[in-house]
Backbone:
């Protein structure tokens, strides 16, 4: 009997398994885009064939961070901006887990920006969903790094003088190997993209547009949107970094002009994930480190391996 | 003991190989049968700047640096800046001589490199006159020339060692052995030649000094290592298989040793973007079922403040090591201090819920690191090992047998799938990982990937399955449970056979000293000297910072009339902690403080203690004496 | 006092406008001549979840929430989740009624919205029976229907206020006035109509209760505001013209008020990427010559740990505010606690060198924020204002005259160019900004852009001109000078006319209570009640956390036989601080603790105190009593 | 008499004024590239016409961070990774100052990466010099975010499994309005670029290649280098974002293949700086805030402006 019998279990999975018994109803506001993420994620899991017990969902702090309360799996509701470092270590500790990280635009592109950049660079094998509602939701509506320039809020009474961040461009420049944007109003595309992202072996970043009807009434509800894969204007080869970069730039700019471009922007299936790189160079063992603690077997001693050097 | 020990100092510039030379010297003496102890002094600078290492060696145990030193090998700083008008750094070139001479004991021996220090330099510093005044025995030798002639200039260190061996009456056998082990080919040959030549050349001096290397013999095999080695090795023996970190002096040593060995031990080492990430990764890995650690120094540990609180609230087992250096802020990165105690005890919002040990020496560092892992995983609580630049960096010989231990792969209060299936679940199927009821406060955990163990770990207050809850009754129950764990840890530590606290000196003495961390063995040496000089004094070295060993310390304080708390910081943090925890004894407790970056010498403690029982005279040198509150 | 005061609670869901309605209610009563005090309770959730505000109103001073409350306006949570099998959150819809009824005093009045609570709900919670048992007077009214009919559904709050006014015998004049001031056009008209209609409709009930709004009159103009207002206004009046921050509950209030007003006051407000940046920006702006502040709560303040040390070491004047909430970690973001004391005192490596004030109420918050700026700039030291969710969020009336103050644009120990030209310079021309010699420890600074003032500000230990120095003598001199500043601050505070510490109760009482921060006025009310009930007890409210007011507290403790320390945390942090600072009195000090997220009510303190003098009985409810060490 | 007479002083400036009397000789190792930065900066200052008293140099922690010890001006030697937030606030407080920030590749792209991204996004008017030696110098030679993949060090005994960051690409994607790379071995170009960067009104980022002979012996000494402005291969319009992006990508990739491409990569002279934006929208006053404290004049009172709202 293996230690983690949930991992790799081969059985039919019902999407209802991902609805918790204890907190089945989210506390998000009526009309909140966050419901869309939850739904798409629940839909994606049976498709990728992973169960609640073999999935670890690590979230940050924000309305978005509560995803782990409303999604049934192993969950880690961490601190603001730090979902990625918690998540990537769990994956290194036990590569058999399906690791998903999620948080808000403030969480991921604001306070957590550096981890975002470095996790993408290292290409950890995980999915990162950023709930981009262009606002700090949970703290009651302050300007966020994706708020449009000129955005007025309690902390920016004259409107923000800052250009918004370009999340996909940063992701690509940092090294993410899968980059997409979808929207809560677009459930079918959202679920498809989540499936691809989870299946991707590397860092998959999804900028997930989620409307916040409570604090960001002026913001577009992200409709009408254009799926760049369906659009005549774009003929993007998602394997081509240059084209991807240009298309992202377009999409990021046009978002603030009222045009919502979604879809897959970049996909490099060949870049090895960080775990693969490390295992390949013998830096970490092939067997999941976490398993050893549950198995019988010899444990190395410094007395045998290291003390000699000191005599 | 001072008189029978060799206190050998090698001085030069950073980047001149002083460190490795001194290690070889110490190892050779250890192999010759002596006990050795090193003390390092170096600037926060990569090349140049006065640096030295002292090796104290004796056939009796040595657990501290000595008072001053009695043999100087002055090599010269090859990266010294040239003097310049208006610059306050002065003549860096002669510092290895001038600055060292200031601490050289009367009757000491000076061996200096005439290939480096020119006649004008020697004249400028009035070496001859001062030697006469202090009874120094001076031996000038062209080490650099010798090295150049038979090899390369950098080998002047070898020449210095050879000459020193001759002057100290030690044959070069052990040194040769070490050269042969570490090198090969031409480089080895050249070094051997230089060692030999220097030995011979120095033997030709007419010795005016009596100082010789003592002879000794060890009953058991000895290993030479630093406190950082001991900490890292204890982590490995504890089954730690994950470390994440970011370099910072002096914590880097532990991080490096772990990084160099973990993959061989089947683990993972990650150097990451910053310390917030480092602590967060350690939490993530531990959550996923791997025994994990992180650590840092100063500002790096400050950045771990928030993740530390997350570990407390999610009850994720975690070991952090904190290596103190002189603060605040960047402070003096390569200098030692004990001023992070309060920071480590209390940083992170909310009532702190952690365990903190501050070992007093190398063996304690090993033991207490192991206890830290055990407590962290048994009680699902962060355990912090607090040490300092001094303890991390000083090298000592230790019985090889000391390390003959069983590894500890236990994940503590973690269930197997079988146990999970029998454990309590909420009716919804979620595992009750945070039940209120365990008596000892520990509600066992599951690990992601285990069938049936699903729960939510949250930094928000949460209920039994981990879901966010702001219910006041649940809140109180959860807080009480978490606080309770510390009481149990205290009880377990009190019950254990070996207390982390160490008593030294005559039990019936009615004067006391309290000390913690790296200054312990120095104070113990001072206690021995004080008793030898007719005082009646004993000391207690405290390692358990939190939970505080109330009974033991209370017992000690009740047994003495007055007590001096010796520590390396400016505000008497451990004295404050003691007063906080015991709520009394303020009128008995005086402080002997030092915070200039240099550890206490035993003689300073003797002096400081004597001035204190004299009714609180101001302490000499850079020490500060703060009398008891009642005075 | 309890009996004569109105304790009115409005309950509903988050996002139902409870907050603004209660503020209007309080303001109207204030204008009518009463003293008012509010207490807010809300979940960490944007829409839905049980939330309430209590308005206590009296013609005598009110400085605390009451014990329970005597009038409930239950509006209903319009964003309640529907019940679901296996979910532990139960029936959210009825919580505004059920959860409030649990605290409603005997004989209280209940006004509830039948447009929201259906008959089945009422039956389910057995309202009728319970009303009988408790002597409640129940008035059901279709507020929602009324609002819908004459305006929009959200105006049911207005309907509730109108009906409450009628039941309490208060005419609607002041409410109308407020509607007219805040609204216009159709919305105003509709609200006025609804107010009127509801008043009339409620007047038709046959009143079985006696509770009425008391009548009162103010001698001077009154303003209604929160502790956060007071802090922000003190900063503006202190000449603070720069703030950098990142939102975090509850600190966001101060940050928002500053951000909304700073540009009008000619200053700069920056919302930045994180709290490390926020503190660093405040340091940069202060260094460049602008009075600056930052602040945060919980984890946000934890992230400021390292920059805080930088301000200490570079002696950059800086004011930080820390708004406590229940920890550890994310904890309970909207709940109050006093558990960050030790964190704020000690976070950041090295001996801490800062000033910490914890004001006891709104006026003290204003005064001490001003002192914080003055001390920060006069002594070039970080000054931290430590308060909590309770003090920041509670609203109270205060004399308008209280704010009639001179602004303070002084940069403290900062030189003009003229003064710089006369000040000491190193021979190289660099300004000696960090001289060892000033008696009070303060070596005046220059500001970039001033001719002749060049120096280096460094987080490394440094010499007189600011250059990195590891010289032990310089180190000691610099540390001693920095530590000395705190002694001078203490002396200045001790000399000042108004102590930050507040005495309450009969001076000759031989039982005492110690309290700090936001619980002060609650404890003072309890003291009054205890004395009225025949006990002899007095209290000291302490605000100076660092430097600690040793003399004052010692004097107080000497004068009492026993003392209970009342605070909102689980480990008795202020009691610990007191023991640390005084080194005695452990045997006199007991702790009354609460840490379930709800502030003490005066009655709880009374009860807790009584059980304590009873020899340390376990405290009732969610309180915890920790007896004195000697017991 | 103005308060800050040093600001805007019009006089001949001698580059020797920037050599301190107190610590004229740096403690960097012989052959260290950091000397090149110091020299180029000293050379640039007289050209841009700013004096030591009106210049604030903010540095991080590292060998690089010691620049402020060896350069005579107002200096702020801050903490690791935090030079940018300190510097940008000083500029907001007193826009008359010439503000320069500097630090290492670990300092700026590692621990300080988020501030780098956000300071660039906001386009603060300052110069940011990153000493890129592909190593942690001061802590004795650990792998840094710019170390080549496979780089062996004490903390990466099997070689780093991480792709290096792309500093210029990140800078551009973040929003920097001037981006260049130069090298210590190229003193003339370095000084020219520094002059342009300092004169630029916005965030000017210079990735300054500085060899570390002590710990990074394997690394190229950055010679031979190619100045892309002089090269036939490149015909870059530095005003064209797309071209700039591609050329940066090239330069970043080729650095690890042994080819050193330096020069100006991007320059947008039109993007208003953050200070300009804020002043334009009336968010901050036109007069330097720092000056008010030294001048006579009325100070606003809350009693007059704010208390009324509460009555
Ligand atoms: C260190 C820290 N700083 C600040 C906060 C307060 N805070 C909680 S959520 C949040 C931002 C929420 O915005 P976003 O990340 O976009 O998430 P959303 O609520 O919009 O989903 C902030 C600032 C915190 N919890 N921790
Ligand atoms: C918070 C923090 N973490 C770690 C350190 C230790 N530290 C000092 S300099 C440095 C890195 C140096 O590398 P780099 O920034 O590239 O500068 P260089 O020395 O190469 O110029 C580190 C990790 C520190 N001072 N502060
Ligand atoms: S505040 Fe906005 S983001 Fe948060 S739950 Fe409500 S709608 Fe969603
Ligand atoms: S270690 Fe490297 S970067 Fe640091 S001073 Fe020496 S050569 Fe320069
Ligand atoms: Mg958001
Ligand atoms: Mg570097």
Residues:
């Amino acid at each position: 009997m293996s230690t983690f019998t949930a991992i790799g279990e081969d059985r039919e999975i019902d999407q209802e398994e991902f609805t918790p018994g204890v907190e089945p109803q989210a506390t998000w506001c009526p009309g909140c885009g966050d419901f869309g993420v939850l739904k798409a994620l629940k839909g994606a899991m049976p498709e990728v064939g992973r169960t609640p017990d073999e999935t670890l969902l690590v979230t940050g702090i924000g309305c978005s961070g509560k995803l782990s309360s409303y999604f049934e799996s192993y969950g880690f509701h961490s601190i603001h901006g730090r979902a990625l470092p918690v998540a990537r270590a769990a994956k290194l500790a036990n590569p058999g887990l399906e690791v998903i990280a999620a948080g808000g635009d403030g969480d991921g592109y604001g306070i957590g920006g550096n981890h975002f950049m470095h996790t993408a660079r290292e290409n950890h094998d995980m999915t990162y969903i950023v709930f981009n509602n262009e606002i700090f939701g949970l703290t009651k509506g302050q300007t966020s790094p994706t708020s449009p320039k000129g955005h007025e809020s309690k902390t920016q009474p004259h409107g923000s003088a800052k250009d918004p961040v370009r999340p996909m461009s940063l992701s690509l420049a940092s090294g993410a190997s899968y980059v997409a944007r979808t929207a809560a109003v677009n459930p079918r595309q959202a679920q498809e993209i989540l499936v691809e992202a989870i299946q991707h072996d590397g860092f998959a970043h999804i900028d997930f547009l989620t409307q916040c009807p409570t604090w960001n009434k002026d913001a577009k509800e992200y409709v009408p949107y254009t799926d760049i894969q369906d659009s005549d204007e774009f003929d993007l080869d998602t394997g081509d970094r240059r084209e991807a970069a240009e298309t992202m730039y377009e999409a990021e700019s046009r978002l603030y002009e009222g045009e919502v471009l979604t879809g897959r922007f970049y996909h490099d299936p060949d870049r090895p994930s960080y775990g693969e790189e490390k295992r390949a160079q013998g830096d970490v063992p092939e067997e999941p480190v976490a398993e050893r603690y549950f198995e019988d077997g010899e444990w190395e001693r410094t007395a045998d391996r290291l003390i000699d050097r000191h005599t | 003991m001072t008189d029978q020990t060799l206190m050998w100092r090698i001085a030069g510039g950073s980047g001149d190989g002083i460190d490795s030379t001194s290690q070889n010297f110490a190892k050779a003496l250890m192999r010759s049968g002596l006990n050795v102890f090193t003390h390092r002094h170096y600037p926060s600078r990569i090349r140049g700047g006065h640096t030295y290492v002292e090796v104290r060696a004796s056939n009796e145990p040595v657990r501290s640096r000595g008072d001053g030193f009695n043999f100087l090998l002055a090599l010269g700083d090859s990266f010294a800046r040239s003097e310049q008008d208006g610059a306050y750094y002065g003549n860096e070139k002669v510092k290895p001589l001038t600055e060292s001479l200031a601490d050289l004991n009367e009757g000491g021996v000076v061996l200096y490199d005439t290939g480096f220090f020119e006649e004008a330099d020697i004249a400028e510093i009035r070496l001859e006159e001062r030697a006469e005044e202090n009874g120094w025995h001076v031996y000038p030798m062209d080490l650099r020339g010798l090295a150049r002639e038979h090899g390369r200039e950098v080998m002047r260190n070898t020449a210095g060692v050879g000459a020193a061996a001759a002057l100290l009456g030690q044959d070069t056998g052990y040194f040769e052995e070490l050269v042969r082990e570490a090198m090969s080919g031409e480089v080895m040959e050249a070094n051997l030649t230089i060692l030999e030549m220097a030995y011979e050349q120095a033997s030709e001096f007419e010795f005016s000094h009596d100082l010789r290397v003592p002879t000794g013999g060890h009953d058991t095999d000895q290993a030479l290592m630093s406190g950082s080695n001991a900490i890292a090795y204890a982590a490995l023996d504890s089954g730690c298989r994950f470390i994440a970190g970011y370099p910072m002096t002096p914590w880097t040593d532990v991080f490096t040793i772990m990084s160099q060995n973990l993959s061989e031990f089947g683990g993972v080492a990650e150097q990451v973007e910053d310390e917030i990430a480092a602590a967060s990764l350690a939490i993530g890995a531990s959550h996923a079922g791997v025994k994990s650690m992180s650590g840092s120094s100063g500002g790096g540990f400050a950045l771990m403040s928030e993740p530390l609180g997350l570990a407390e609230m999610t009850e994720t087992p975690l070991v952090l090591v904190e290596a103190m250096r002189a603060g605040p802020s960047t402070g003096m990165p390569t200098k030692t201090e004990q001023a992070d105690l309060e920071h480590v005890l209390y940083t992170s919002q909310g009532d702190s819920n952690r365990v903190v040990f501050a070992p007093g020496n190398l063996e304690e560092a090993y033991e207490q690191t192991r206890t830290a892992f055990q407590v962290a995983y048994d009680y699902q609580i962060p355990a912090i090992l607090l040490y300092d630049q001094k303890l991390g960096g000083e090298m000592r010989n230790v019985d090889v047998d000391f390390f003959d231990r069983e590894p500890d792969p236990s994940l503590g209060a973690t269930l197997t799938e079988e146990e999970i299936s029998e454990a309590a679940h909420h009716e919804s199927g979620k595992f009750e990982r945070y039940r209120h009821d365990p008596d000892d406060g520990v509600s066992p955990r599951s690990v992601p990937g285990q069938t049936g163990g699903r729960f939510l770990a949250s930094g928000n207050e949460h209920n039994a399955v981990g879901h966010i809850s702001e219910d006041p009754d649940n809140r109180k129950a959860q807080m009480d449970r978490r606080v309770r764990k510390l009481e149990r840890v205290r009880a377990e530590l009190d019950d254990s056979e070996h207390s982390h606290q160490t008593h030294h000196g005559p039990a019936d003495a009615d004067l006391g000293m309290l000390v913690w961390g790296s200054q312990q063995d120095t104070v113990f040496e001072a206690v021995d000297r004080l008793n030898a000089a007719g005082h009646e004094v004993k000391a207690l070295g405290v390692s358990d910072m939190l939970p505080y060993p109330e009974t033991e310390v209370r017992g000690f304080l009740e047994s003495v009339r007055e007590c001096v708390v010796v520590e390396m910081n400016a505000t008497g943090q451990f004295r404050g902690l003691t007063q906080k925890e015991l709520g009394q004894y303020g009128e008995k407790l005086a402080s002997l403080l030092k915070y200039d970056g240099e550890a206490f010498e035993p003689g300073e403690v003797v002096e400081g203690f004597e001035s204190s029982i004299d009714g609180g005279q101001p302490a000499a040198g850079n020490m500060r004496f703060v009398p008891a509150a009642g005075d």
The pocket of thiamine diphosphate (ligand 1) is lined by residues A 61-64, 80, 103-107, 131, 133, 135-139, 144; C 246-248, 275, 299-300, 303, 330 (CB under 6 Å).
